[in-house]
Amino acid sequence: MPTESDILNIERDHWRFKEIVKGNIRDNLKEFISNGSILGRRGKDKVSINIPQIDTPRFRYGKKNSGGVGQGEGEPGDSLGGEPGEGEGGGKAGQAPGEHELEVDIKIHELAEILGEELQLPRIEPKGRKNIASTKERYNSIRSTGPHSLRHFKRTYREALRRQVTVGNYNPDNPIVVPIRDDMRFRSWKEEKQPETNAVIIYMMDVSGSMGDEQKEIVRIESFWIDTWLRSQYEGLETRYIIHDAVAREVDRETFFHTRESGGTMISSAYKLASDIISNEYPASDWNIYPFHFSDGDNWSLDDTDVCMALLREHILPHSNIFCYGQVVSAYGSGQFIKDLREHFSKNDQVVLSEIPGRDAIMQSIKDFLGTGK
Q: pLDDT tier at 87 (50, 70, 90 boundaries)?
């Protein structure tokens, strides 16, 4: 049976290994972000990441009585591995070292910490609290009845010891303490109401013909890291998805990233729908609201662009923490819309703009959006 010292050594080694893994993620964070390899291996509260150049040493045992060092016939100096060059493999010798990859799990909140440290993201100060409070159970008292699973062993032992000392049954030379039913003590709880600081992200994306698969993959990767950071800042986070070409509609996450249309683009349709969702479901006094819009910069007309600016100024910005617009470079997009936003909101720090020419720019774009601390 392992001793307490063995357990401490194991825990220390486990901690050191986790620090090595985190250090490797920090060193390769830009690569992890740009290639999007971890997105497909996301669990409820953790992700799996392939970490190169980390190999865990371990013993490998052969079959019992199959021979080996110190067993069977042989003379000092005999080769243990057979004659040089023997073996069944057909490959040739090479000079390059082998590549080893280890798949490790890391919790989402740890990933968020690494992201925040590397991008120097400030902590967000939530602006509102949701009216509906969550209920949390706290075990903060002791009682003499309760289920066996909640028995408090230390308090039960103390009661039994006190009783035996009081009646004179305790022998210091033979310190056996046997609790009886009256000695039993159980943990008790009470429910506490806790207001939750909640947030909602409203993702909007142009899915017209000029937005190709690569552009949507960039949006998918960036949204994962945006979600990861904001979830570390709020107890509750809701996500809504809007796609648009000439018209807008709300969809689920899968549809959001895999729909492609061929029509024109009217950005105002998405802003109108986002405005309706905010006004009907997310009062600004109780929610932290983050609209994100991704497009290649094409819009149907100057008139529609004017409608977009009015919707932002009058209906979206007054209720949002920030409004973030990411322009993904496309061979077919004009790139005009970000210029229009700069013209109208250059002095408004509530509007955050970012140009994303390719995957290598995702990391900087995330910092553009989340570095405001709002």
A: very low
* Distances 54 to 11, 25, 308 between C-alpha atoms, Å: 19, 12, 51
Under 8 Å between Cβ of 337 and 295? yes
Q: Are 370 and 119 in contact (CB under 8 A)?
A: yes
| Joined tokens for residue 341 | 């936003």
Q: What is the arithmetic mean of pLDDT over 89-98?
A: 48
Rounded Cα–Cα distance for residues 309 and 346 (Å):
12
Distances (CA, A) of 18 to 32, 46, 51, 55, 317: 17, 14, 12, 13, 42
Please check whether residue 255 is in contact with residue 283, taking contact to mean a CB–CB distance below 8 angstroms. Answer: no
Please compute the mean of the pLDDT values over residues 17-33 and round it to a whole number: 65
Element (H, E) at 226: helix 213-233
In angstroms, the CA 356 to CA 211 distance is 13
CA distance 211 to 331: 9
What is the pLDDT of the chain when averaged over all its residues? 78
Task: State how far the Cα of 274 lies from the Cα of 219, in Å rounded to an integer.
Answer: 18
Domain edges within the chain: 17-54+102-120, 133-193, 198-370
pLDDT in tens, 264-308: 789 999 999 999 999 999 998 889 999 999 999 989 889 999 999
Identify the burial level of 7 via C-beta atoms within 10 angstroms of its C-beta, where 0-12 means exposed, 13-18 middle and 19 or more buried.
exposed
Amino acid at 60: R
pLDDT tens-digit profile of 186-233? 888 776 655 556 899 999 999 987 788 888 889 988 988 898 888 888
Is the predicted pLDDT of residue 5 greater than 80, yes or no? no
The C-alpha atoms of residue 357 and residue 253 are separated, in whole angstroms, by: 23
Domain 198-370: what homologous superfamily? von Willebrand factor, type A domain (3.40.50.410)
**In this structure, what token pair is assigned to residue 16?**
């050191």
